[in-house]
Amino acid sequence: MLNLVMFGLSLIAALGTAFLAGPTMSGETESGIALAVLARPVRRSAVLLGKWLGLVVFGSGFVAVAGLAQLLIVWTTTGYWPPHPVTGLALLAGQAAALLTLGLLLSTAVSSMASGIVAVGLFGATWIAGVVGGVGQALDNDSVARVGTVSRMLLPTDGLWRGAMNSFQDPTLLTQFSEAFKGHPFLSATGLTPTYAGWAAVWVSLVLALAAVAFQRRDL
């Protein structure tokens, strides 16, 4: 139940940060605000980085406060407290950071509304691909399982979400489910590996760098 509640939180955080990232560049460029800011001796990349940091702090703060509230509500009503709540919330914050970074990149090329819609659409598509990949693992179908693996490499939001699920869920669940457990959309059989966490950090850095280059070359 906690994972289902946290999925709602992750969805709200994803929607919020994706649609906040859009107006950050595209909206200010269209309204002329960016011209006033960039008229000063400041690099475009510095402006972009500052806005990204502000969005990350806001998104992380929202996940921390709302997530803690959800944990307390579940603990009060059911008596359950997850084994690694801090890790789970940190991974949800990382998921939001990854999606807002993508939204920021898209906002340097398309309108603010379009960037938010595309980012959220990719978020949903990656989650669905992760479920499909889980079903492929449960059925020992390597081709179908590869769908989830590839999608999590292209956009790490689903991989971070599955790591968060593993942090929130009761470890004894692993002994109560069969192989079909692997295909469950709200349960995760394995935690996040350090290698994948490193890839997620690299992915965010690369996308942010691409956003800086695109914004630098954009005609204001």
TrEMBL record:
The chain crosses the membrane at residues 52-74, 86-106, 196-215. One of its GO terms (cellular component) is plasma membrane. This is ABC transporter permease. The lineage of its organism: Bacteria, Bacillati, Actinomycetota, Actinomycetes, Micromonosporales. One of its GO terms (molecular function) is ABC-type transporter activity. Keywords: Membrane, Transmembrane, Transmembrane helix. It comes from the Bacteria.
